[in-house]
Every structure is written in structure tokens, then in C-alpha cells.
């Protein structure tokens, strides 16, 4: 059992207004009378920037409802909870609760610098979150999450060759509605979430929502002798929205949001991986470390966006303006141990000594992003549906990398300044034409221009000042898609899709331990997809599946650390991928609802001459080495790209009384082995991982009140989730089992 099991109260209230997504687990059993007629409702999505039925959109995609997110996130998991919750989706981080790195169909970016670009675009309320720090905004008071797999080069454009993850907040209405939710569990894990909204004036409505998450420190530092020193956090976020709507001809939505985070950065664990294997060393203890370096993290982000919509007959014009800002400071003991010359409080842990120390911090003193999109479209009821638009992106960021002398009272001994200004603009258009009642063709194209001005200099370091070093890559190109859809019956269709996309040139200037920056050429992808979508005649089963293949050229990859202790960008000549995915949801009985999803993803690098430095901390390299001692990685799979992903949820309810119900809810997600780096070794990989959660409770008043026991990682599985390879076999580890109680209520 965990060291502290706390019982508490959780209150949530969920919107009583009609929802646009499928009838979910909770709704299906709010009352016995509803459960007897439980059917799947229509899922509406905005994957192609107009409201459509999920089953009519010819894209491989998964919709994750708000209720599922609440169940997954009871233990404060944050945005990383989406890992393996949808087919072909994986996520990891080396930064704690900020800087998530997402992968779709094996495509992602393991770069950990604060200007790193990623091929998975994350869009929050129609605003792209470009900087990786912005991507970690907590999930609360959401309508749903849409996961779009494959290139989205027409409507989302730059930096979306792998796919898009779209987050939709619940919007204000004239109805008074709201919820509150509080939970408490093991390790002092507490979550409080609430929202209230309704009519403000005759033409105005508003909504305020907030989230607070907390966990006590739970990891002992045996070097200092301090108990419960690391692993804790305080994470808070708020969102305010105001909607103006006087007539059907015009509406305006204003959104302001912010996040504050204080706590531990990633807790690295020195020499935790066995030499010659991918398992923990004997005696490994997840609840303790021995570190001589410091660890802390602070983050503040805020932003605002304005959505303006005009309706002229059968024409619609939209303006979407966004501003995002962020600052952060993250300090960690990178080597994860202590120098062999030092004496810790507990001298028994000699396996945690390291050849040399590494205590570094990354700061983002400035991140300012401005976006503007204009879009003109016609009415969705027309046989020919079209839309055209323009897009502008302007980002200005400053990054500071620090290094500290751990053995000399942590004095500063390395200082690097980076600055980057990115400007991009695009013109795009798409059309959807119903040739017959059973045959439909969609096509789109986008022209994009991208320019980046980068500068880095080292004012203090081990080998003296360097720079300024500069890079100013520019790129302009076309991207687009073509899709045909054939309706087989009233409830089923098949589609074939060809799409391409690209990622703009990237620059890496992390030069604390290097004397040069690296620039990656733009990557391009062409994807082929064939899919099937169906719903049973009685609307109790929904099944979607697809197969795909893609070819990527000049894929941008990050060679991390290794024996050279230098992180740099490289390009692979070609990368091939193929696989299959499916989503299923069904009412097996009026009181038994389940969902399932799965994927197989094959990735392979095709570049006979591409080589990188292997580990510097001792590992068993499986790749051939060239004359320089570098690992040749041709034929390797991509890092953090599990071949198999599976997810399953089930809910069974037992009606009780006039308006009550006892229920059991469980969710399980699986991913197969993943490799952490571009080279292949016996040590730096993670074993297959199956994680489960459960909720057992009672709801009453037709589902408006609920109390439940919950458990996350209920088998208390311990798994390596990442590693550092430059001077020892350092590991990241997943969170332990969390057990708690929650109570929720609805207005």
C-alpha cells in the first residue's frame, strides 16, 4: 500500500445542457429509466473547421469525451494522461508536469529544448499551441478532445505532419449551469475543479472555470537525509469566457486563461537500469533517490483569444485572434546521483554515484505568440461545401540555459542565451462535393511560408564564450489532401485519402557543452489511408477502422546526449511507416457500456549513412558502429514509437431506488516496448506496459450527485518511462498507485 492513504470528498457538477458528443458512460446510467433505452448519440466534431457528424468525416480520428478525461485524471495526471488513450497516440516528457512530447503513428520529436518544434500540432479552442511549454495546459471543463491522425496539411498547415490534437472548452450558454469536483487520495493527491456559467445580460452569457491540483512530496532524498523532498506540485489554472449573441447574424466569444505551476522538475534516478537489460537494478526503490543537485520548477502561462462570427445568408465569415505568453524556470539534477567523492546522509547507496555531476536549468524569460486566422465558408447544407482562409503566426521567444557547479555551492558556471523570431503565413482552401447521394469528394490545398531568425551565444561555459551563432532558415511550399467517400448503407461508408504535410526548418542551439548550433531541413510526408466507419441499425454499436502507409523525407530527428554529451538536430533521408487502427464503442446491455481501441504502428528509418553517438554511460549497443565509433541507425524504429497500443473501458450500473445507481467503471491501456533513443541498446528501452484504473461508486438524483472510490495504476506497476545516457544509466519512472475518494455534484 502507498505510505499515505487519504480519504476525501470530491464534488463535481457536469453540464445539464445537451451535449454534442456520444452518450457517455455516466449518462448511460444516471437513472434506471434512461439505462433501459441507452443508445449511442451522434458525435459531432470540428475536425475540418465546420461542425459535422464524426461518422461522415473521412479522417482517422478518435473523440475522447469529458467524462473519460475526468476518470483518467482523478490522480492529477495532466495532459500526459492522453498517452495510449487513443489508437496510435503516445506521450512522454523529461520535464515533469510541463513540456509534454506527443507522438502519433510513431512520429514525434524527443528534443527537450524550449524552442523545439513537434510534428503533432496541439490546438486549444482553435489556437495552435506552438511552444512545448504551452502544450501542457491542464485538461478541465472540456467539451471533448479530438485526435486527428495523419497529415493535416490543408486546414492546420505547418508542423502537423503527424496529426492534430484538438481541445474544445465548454462554451457559455444562457442556461445557468455548473459543476464542482474535489478529490483526495494517496500521497496527498488532491484535485478541486469547478465551473459556473449562465446568462449575464440579455445578449451576454459567461462561464468561469478553475482547477487546482496538488500532491505532497513523496520521494526521499537519501543524500540530504530529507524525507518527502521531491515529487510534489501545486498546479492551478483558470478560464474565463464571455459570449455575445444578439442575433443569428453575429456572435463574439472572448476567452482568457492562465496557469500557475510550482513543484518538482523531473526526478532523475542514477544507475537505475541494469547493464545488459531493460529492467531496474536489484533493490531499486521508487520512493527514494540520492541527489546532490537541486530540483525545482516554476511556470506561468496566460493567453486570450477572440472568436468573431458573421453569417450572411448562406455565407459565414470567421475571425480568430489569439495571444499566448509563457515564462518558466526548471532546474534539475540531470545525472540523478552524487559525486563519488561526496558522502551522503545514507552511505549505503553507492550505486547512485556518477562519474561527473550535471546540474542544469532551462528558463524561458519570454514567449509571446500572436496568431490570426480569417475564414470564409458557405452553408454546410449545400451540395458543394467550400471554405477559404488566411493564417498568420508570429512568435518571439528568449531562452536561457544555465549550468551550476554542484561541488562548489552550486555557483553558476554556464550561461547560454538563445533568441528566436518566427513568422509564418498561409493561404488555404478546401471543397467538398457530393457527386451523388452515395459518393463524395473532398480536396484541399495550402500554401505556406515560414521564416525563422535564430541566435545563440554562450557568455560563460567550460570552454569559454562562444558566438553569437546564427541561423535564419526560410521555407515555402504547398500541401494538401484528396479524399473520396463511398456510402455503403445508411450507417456505413468507406473512404480513401491521400494527404501530405510538412514541418518547417528547426534550429537547436543548446550550446552549454557544444560550440555549434544545428539546423534541420524541412521534413515532408505523403500518407495513404483507407478507412471504414459504421454504426449498427439500433445505434448500440459504433465501429471505425483504417489502414495507412506513409513515406517521410528529411525527417527531423534529435540526437540526444550520448557519449558526445551534445544534443543536435539531424535529418533522415527517408522514413517509412504503416499500420492499422480501430475504435469501438457499444452498449452490450442497457446497463453495460464499453469502448475499445487499438493500433499497430510500424516505423523504419531508411538512411544507410546516418549515424549518431551512442551512450556515454555504459550500455550494450545493438547497432553496428562506423569507423568513428558512432552507431549506424539505418533500419531502426523511431524512438518512443510503440508497435502496439490498446485501450479499453467498461461501465456497469445496477439501478437502485427511484433515481439512483451503483456502478463500477474501469479503464485499461496498453503499449508495447518503446526505445528511448535513435540507436538501439539493451538498456535504454521500456518494457511493455499495462496500466489500469477503477471507480466504484453510487450516484443519485438522476446522476446529479455521485460518490466514488477510485484507483489509478491499481496494480502499482513500476516501469521505466525514459532515460538519460551521457554518463550513467539514468531512468525516469512512472507514478505509483493512487487510491482516493471523490464526490461530485451538478447544479
UniProtKB/TrEMBL annotation:
Keywords: Cell outer membrane, Ion transport, Iron, Iron transport, Membrane, Receptor, Signal, TonB box, Transmembrane, Transmembrane beta strand, Transport
InterPro entries in alphabetical order: Beta-barrel_TonB, Beta-barrel_TonB_sf, Plug_dom, TonB-dep_rcpt-like, TonB_box_CS
Source domain of life: Bacteria
Main location: membrane
PROSITE patterns: TONB_DEPENDENT_REC_1, TONB_DEPENDENT_REC_3
Compartments reported by the entry: Cell outer membrane
Protein's UniProt name: TonB-dependent receptor
Any Gene Ontology biological process: iron ion transport
Signal sequence, renumbered to the chain: 1-22
Organism the protein comes from: Luteibacter yeojuensis
Domain TonB-dependent receptor-like beta-barrel: 259-714
Its membrane topology: Multi-pass membrane protein
One annotated Gene Ontology cellular component of this protein: cell outer membrane
Residues covered by the TonB-dependent receptor plug domain: 54-164
Placement of sequence motif TonB box: 42-48
Recorded family membership: Belongs to the TonB-dependent receptor family.
Amino acid at each position: 500500500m502507498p505510505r499515505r492513504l487519504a480519504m476525501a470528498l470530491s464534488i463535481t457538477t457536469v453540464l445539464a445542457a445537451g451535449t454534442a458528443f456520444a452518450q457517455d458512460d455516466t449518462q448511460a446510467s444516471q437513472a434506471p429509466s434512461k439505462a433501459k433505452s441507452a443508445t449511442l448519440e451522434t458525435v459531432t466534431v470540428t475536425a475540418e473547421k465546420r461542425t459535422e457528424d464524426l461518422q461522415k468525416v473521412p479522417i482517422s480520428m478518435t473523440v475522447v469525451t469529458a467524462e473519460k478525461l475526468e476518470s483518467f485524471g482523478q490522480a492529477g495526471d495532466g495532459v500526459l494522461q492522453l498517452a495510449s488513450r487513443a489508437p496510435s497516440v503516445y506521450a512522454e516528457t523529461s520535464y515533469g508536469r510541463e513540456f509534454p512530447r506527443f507522438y502519433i503513428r510513431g512520429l514525434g520529436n524527443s528534443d527537450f529544448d524550449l524552442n523545439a518544434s513537434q510534428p503533432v500540432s496541439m490546438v486549444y479552442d482553435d489556437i495552435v499551441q506552438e511552444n512545448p511549454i504551452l502544450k501542457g495546459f491542464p485538461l478541465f471543463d472540456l467539451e471533448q478532445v479530438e485526435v486527428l491522425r495523419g497529415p493535416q496539411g490543408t486546414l492546420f498547415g505547418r508542423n502537423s505532419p503527424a496529426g492534430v490534437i484538438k481541445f474544445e472548452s465548454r462554451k457559455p450558454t444562457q442556461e445557468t449551469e455548473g459543476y464542482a469536483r474535489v478529490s483526495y487520495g494517496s500521497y496527498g493527491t488532491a484535485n478541486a475543479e469547478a465551473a459556473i456559467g449562465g446568462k449575464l445580460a440579455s445578449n451576454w452569457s459567461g462561464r468561469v472555470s478553475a482547477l487546482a491540483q496538488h500532491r505532497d512530496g513523496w520521494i526521499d532524498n537519501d543524500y540530504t537525509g530529507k524525507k518527502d523532498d521531491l515529487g510534489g506540485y501545486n498546479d492551478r489554472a483558470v478560464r474565463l469566457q464571455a459570449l455575445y449573441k444578439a442575433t443569428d447574424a453575429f456572435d463574439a466569444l472572448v476567452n482568457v486563461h492562465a496557469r500557475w505551476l510550482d513543484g518538482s522538475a523531473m526526478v532523475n534516478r542514477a544507475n537505475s537500469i541494469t547493464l545488459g537489460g531493460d529492467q531496474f537494478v536489484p533493490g531499486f526503490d521508487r520512493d527514494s533517490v540520492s541527489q546532490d543537485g537541486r530540483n525545482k520548477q516554476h511556470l506561468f502561462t496566460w493567453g486570450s483569444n477572440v472568436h468573431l462570427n458573421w453569417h450572411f445568408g448562406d455565407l459565414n465569415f470567421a475571425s480568430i485572434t489569439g495571444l499566448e505568453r509563457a515564462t518558466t524556470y526548471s532546474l534539475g539534477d540531470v545525472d540523478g546521483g552524487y559525486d563519488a567523492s561526496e558522502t551522503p546522509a545514507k552511505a549505503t547507496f553507492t550505486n547512485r554515484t556518477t562519474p561527473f555531476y550535471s546540474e542544469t536549468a532551462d528558463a524561458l524569460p519570454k514567449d509571446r505568440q500572436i496568431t490570426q486566422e480569417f475564414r470564409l465558408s458557405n452553408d454546410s447544407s449545400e451540395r458543394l461545401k467550400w471554405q477559404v482562409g488566411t493564417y498568420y503566426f508570429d512568435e518571439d521567444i528568449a531562452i536561457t540555459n544555465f549550468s551550476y557547479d554542484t561541488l562548489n555551492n552550486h555557483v553558476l558556471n554556464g550561461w547560454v542565451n538563445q533568441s528566436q523570431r518566427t513568422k509564418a503565413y498561409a493561404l488555404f482552401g478546401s471543397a467538398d462535393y457530393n457527386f451523388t447521394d452515395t459518393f463524395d469528394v473532398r480536396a484541399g490545398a495550402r500554401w505556406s511560408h515560414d521564416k525563422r531568425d535564430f541566435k545563440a551565444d554562450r557568455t560563460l561555459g567550460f570552454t569559454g564564450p562562444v558566438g553569437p551563432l546564427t541561423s535564419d532558415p526560410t521555407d515555402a511550399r504547398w500541401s494538401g489532401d484528396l479524399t473520396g467517400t463511398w456510402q455503403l448503407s445508411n450507417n456505413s461508408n468507406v473512404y480513401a485519402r491521400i494527404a501530405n504535410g510538412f514541418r518547417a526548418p528547426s534550429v537547436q542551439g543548446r550550446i552549454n557543452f557544444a560550440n555549434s548550433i544545428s539546423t534541420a531541413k524541412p521534413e515532408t510526408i505523403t500518407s495513404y489511408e483507407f478507412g471504414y466507419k459504421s454504426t449498427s441499425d439500433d445505434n448500440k454499436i459504433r465501429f471505425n477502422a483504417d489502414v495507412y502507409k506513409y513515406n517521410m523525407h528529411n525527417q527531423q530527428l534529435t540526437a540526444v546526449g550520448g557519449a558526445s554529451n551534445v544534443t543536435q538536430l539531424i535529418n533522415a533521408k527517408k522514413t517509412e511507416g504503416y499500420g492499422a487502427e480501430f475504435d469501438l464503442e457499444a452498449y452490450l446491455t442497457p446497463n453495460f457500456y464499453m469502448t475499445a481501441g487499438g493500433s499497430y504502428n510500424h516505423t523504419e528509418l531508411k538512411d544507410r549513412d546516418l549515424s549518431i553517438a551512442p551512450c556515454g554511460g555504459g550500455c550494450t549497443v545493438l547497432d553496428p558502429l562506423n569507423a568513428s565509433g558512432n552507431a549506424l541507425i539505418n533500419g531502426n524504429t523511431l524512438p518512443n514509437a510503440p508497435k502496439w497500443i490498446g485501450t479499453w473501458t467498461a461501465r456497469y450500473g445496477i439501478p437502485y431506488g427511484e433515481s439512483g445507481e451503483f456502478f463500477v467503471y474501469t479503464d485499461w491501456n496498453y503499449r508495447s516496448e518503446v526505445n528511448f533513443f535513435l540507436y538501439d541498446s539493451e538498456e535504454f528501452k521500456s518494457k511493455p506496459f499495462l496500466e489500469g484504473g477503477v471507480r466504484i461508486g453510487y450516484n443519485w438524483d438522476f446522476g446529479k450527485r455521485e460518490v466514488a472510490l477510485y484507483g489509478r495504476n491499481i496494480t502499482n506497476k513500476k516501469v521505466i518511462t525514459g532515460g538519460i545516457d551521457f554518463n550513467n544509466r539514468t531512468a525516469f519512472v512512472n507514478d505509483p498507485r493512487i487510491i482516493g475518494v471523490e464526490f461530485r455534484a451538478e447544479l
